Amino acid sequence: MPDIYDFSIETLNGQALPLAGYRGKVLLLVNTACECGFTAQLGALEQLYQRYRDQGLEIIGFPCNQFGGQEPGNASAIGQFCQKNFGVSFALSAKIDVNGANAHPLWRYLAAAKPGLLGSRRIKWNFTKFLIDGEGRIRGRFAPYVKPAALERVIESLLPTSAA
């Protein structure tokens, strides 16, 4: 079975981003959408990022249009929306699918490695969150309604003790 560092993603601006470069960092991976009822979580994610990035937290948002067509924009529109409305400075991937035949391999891996409620591998909605420790282990899968601030304690527990 692969590990998290075997995957590479394409950023919103079309650059390759190998996850191997995040080894030793705490990662929070979130499927996002600009027109979702949970979209305000982008601001809360940015606050988490600003608070903990110097201690080893990295966040990557994965725009996805699979849930109610809530991410209809192109890369430019997504980037502008996230920056203008929420000051997003964490990494954003190119728009992806998280379910189905065209699901990004990373998200297939995440869903299989850390099933949701009742063992479901399916991502249920926008703003599902996966928390990965500095050794690449998935430490949690969090439902869309779980606010980013609710993850602070577990994030703090995963950060290097010299940085926390």
UniProtKB/TrEMBL annotation:
Domain Thioredoxin, residue spans: 1-160
GO biological process, one term: cellular response to oxidative stress
Signal peptide positions (record): none
InterPro entries: Glutathione_peroxidase, GPX_AS, GPX_CS, Thioredoxin-like_sf, Thioredoxin_domain
Active-site residue numbers: 36
GO molecular function term, any single one: peroxidase activity
Keywords from the UniProt entry: Oxidoreductase, Peroxidase
Keyword Oxidoreductase: yes
Family designation: Belongs to the glutathione peroxidase family.
Protein's name according to its UniProt entry: Glutathione peroxidase
Organism whose genome encodes this protein: Chromobacterium rhizoryzae
Lineage: Bacteria, Pseudomonadati, Pseudomonadota, Betaproteobacteria, Neisseriales
